[in-house]
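Reminder to self: tokens first, then the designed residues, so the page reads top to bottom the way the pipeline ran.
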């Protein structure tokens, strides 16, 4: 790939150097929202031979789309927007990226200094606008030939090393004066021959960079170089413990985690984001088990916990871990961010999850004598989980509803497909009721917002190129309607299973116990019924749509048929399942009551 040096204006030079350097740093996708002030950046991406380009009219959705792309590819993804409120619309996605450890390169165009804070159109103070939610913020001055390109390249590399290389977003704010388009020459420029000579002189101090394919400054960041001493690990492993697996990378080696659990003789508790929820070695229905008297008694006997990955879905489990008096609490996580709601962690192992678990497994070779201990300690957890599974099977609904979807959707997923779980009630229904091994699960649980879920899913599909199923609630769906434009572009099957319970079903859980006038307040101000369906939205965006609003056993057969057909054809399909308001919360309440009787 040859880097060209003939540009009509300085904005084009800086933008092209910036985009080329990001390419060399590993950025392969760039998501663009239309805008005039960002024209130099957009043209630089459009003219780049290697960069894959994605365009969307809504910056909020575009930010989440980029987030999904970065999740699926494991690579940093760039975003380009114009100035003003376009920048602010990226904030929700950037917060989620920061909290989830996802690298984004957010490139925002800006007005020059003389147009800030003076009433100029579409001009706001964008410096540091994302605050604490980026790993680094690089504020570039207006392009100027008096500033060396060596400075520009070195600044980009250093900011990237502080942010994206550590799994955090990077904000690059680019001030531009007119002219903004590559076919517009600078007002003060001399004849073309002189301009060409000036460009050659300007590029002369980065000739080595132009001739290479490497970043201007390469940063080699050290990984975790040592673990606690063998004796410290073996002392930790000697006792009644748990392994709790939270959110781990999609490609995590779950076999190593399962083997570590077996070697230690500790029960394996798996979150729905763990890529091993329902794994044969895992305790079934751990959330409900903890709600039972027998299960609670077992959990309270634990002395130590090894948590692998953070952000647990189960509030009950998270609260137990945060409040229990542990002799020792170790955590393995790719990033050093604080994930310790009870402030009880004693050891943090930061680095690649697979590498750390393999090293811990090697240090556990002398613990094979613990097999007998395993029978005495881990087996009761597994046995009680199995009893719960049998009880839930007996109470599995005979008609299509939220509980049935939570329990059975995993069984219907095509081989090799992925599942994106929407926030609020859908992810909890799967966490509580599903017992299938779910091994390719995406979520947005950094902040657990309901916004941008369809856009993130569309980004995951684009990066993954596998069939994808999104389980989403109606409020989340309505919140992100614009992103159906992104979803419809999928080249592989993308099935949106929409649970329409006419409002925020989760609030039937959170407002449980309210009486009198408060019942109506909870209904009007929290559940917020809307009386809408997705039919006309699907028509607007040209997406295949099917609705199931009947009860009875035939509704399950109907869903299975439509779901199978949708999973076998390219493109997006919406299957809307109408369920009675409050039914999902009631099924959770009944399951907890049943568990407490065991």
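Designed residues (598 positions):
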């Amino acid at each position: 790939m040859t880097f060209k040096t003939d540009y009509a204006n300085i904005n084009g030079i800086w933008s092209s150097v910036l985009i080329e350097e990001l390419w060399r740093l590993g950025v392969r996708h760039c998501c663009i929202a239309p805008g005039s002030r960002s024209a130099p950046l957009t043209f630089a991406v459009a003219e780049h031979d290697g960069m894959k380009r994605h365009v969307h009219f809504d910056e909020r959705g575009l930010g989440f789309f980029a987030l999904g792309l970065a999740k699926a590819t494991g690579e940093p993804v760039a975003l380009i927007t114009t100035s003003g409120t376009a920048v602010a619309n990226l904030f929700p996605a950037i917060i989620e990226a920061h909290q989830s450890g996802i690298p984004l390169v957010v490139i925002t165009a800006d007005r020059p200094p003389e147009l800030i804070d003076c009433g100029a159109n579409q001009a706001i103070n964008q410096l540091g606008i994302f605050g604490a939610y980026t790993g680094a913020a690089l504020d570039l001055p207006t392009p100027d030939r008096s500033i060396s390109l060596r400075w520009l390249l070195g600044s980009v590399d250093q900011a990237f090393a502080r942010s994206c290389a550590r799994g955090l977003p990077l904000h690059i704010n680019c001030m531009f004066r007119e002219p903004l388009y590559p076919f517009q020459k600078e007002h003060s420029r001399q004849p073309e021959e002189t301009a060409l000579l000036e460009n050659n002189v300007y590029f002369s101090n980065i000739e080595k960079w132009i001739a290479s394919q490497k970043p201007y400054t390469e940063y080699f960041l050290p990984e975790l170089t040592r673990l606690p001493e063998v004796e410290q690990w073996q002392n930790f492993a000697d006792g009644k413990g748990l392994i709790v697996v939270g959110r781990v990378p999609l490609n995590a080696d779950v076999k190593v985690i399962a083997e570590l659990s077996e070697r230690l003789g500790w029960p394996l508790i798996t979150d729905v984001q763990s890529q091993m929820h329902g794994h044969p070695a895992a305790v079934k229905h751990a959330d409900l088990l903890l709600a039972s008297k027998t299960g609670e008694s077992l959990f309270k006997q634990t002395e130590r916990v090894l948590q692998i990955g953070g952000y647990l879905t189960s509030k009950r489990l998270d609260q137990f871990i945060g409040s229990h008096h542990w002799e020792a609490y170790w955590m393995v996580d790719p990033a050093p961010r604080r994930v310790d709601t009870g402030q009880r962690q004693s050891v943090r192992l930061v680095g690649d999850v697979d590498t750390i678990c393999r090293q811990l497994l090697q240090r556990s070779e002398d613990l094979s004598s613990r097999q007998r201990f395993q029978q005495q300690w881990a087996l009761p957890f597994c046995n009680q989980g199995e009893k719960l599974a049998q009880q839930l099977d007996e109470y599995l609904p005979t008609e299509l509803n939220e509980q049935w979807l939570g329990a059975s959707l995993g069984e219907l997923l095509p081989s090799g497909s992925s599942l994106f779980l929407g926030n609020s009630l859908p992810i909890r229904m799967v966490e509580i009721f599903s017992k299938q091994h779910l091994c390719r699960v995406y979520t947005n649980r950094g902040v657990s917002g309901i916004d941008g879920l369809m856009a993130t899913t569309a980004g995951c599909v684009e990066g993954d190129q596998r069939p994808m199923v999104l389980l989403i609630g109606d409020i989340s769906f309505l919140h992100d309607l614009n992103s159906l434009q992104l979803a419809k572009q999928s080249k592989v099957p993308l099935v949106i299973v929409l649970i329409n319970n006419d409002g925020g079903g989760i609030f039937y859980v959170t407002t449980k116990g309210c009486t009198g006038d408060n019942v109506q307040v909870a209904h009007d101000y929290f559940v917020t019924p809307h009386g809408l369906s997705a039919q006309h939205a699907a028509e607007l965006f040209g997406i295949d749509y099917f609705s199931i609003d009947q009860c009875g056993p035939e509704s399950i057969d109907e869903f299975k048929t439509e779901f199978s057909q949708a999973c076998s054809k390219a493109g997006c399909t919406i299957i809307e399942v109408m369920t009675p308001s409050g039914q999902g919360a009631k099924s959770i309440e009944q399951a907890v009551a049943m568990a407490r009787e065991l």
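The CA atoms of residues 407 and 434 lie 4 Å apart.
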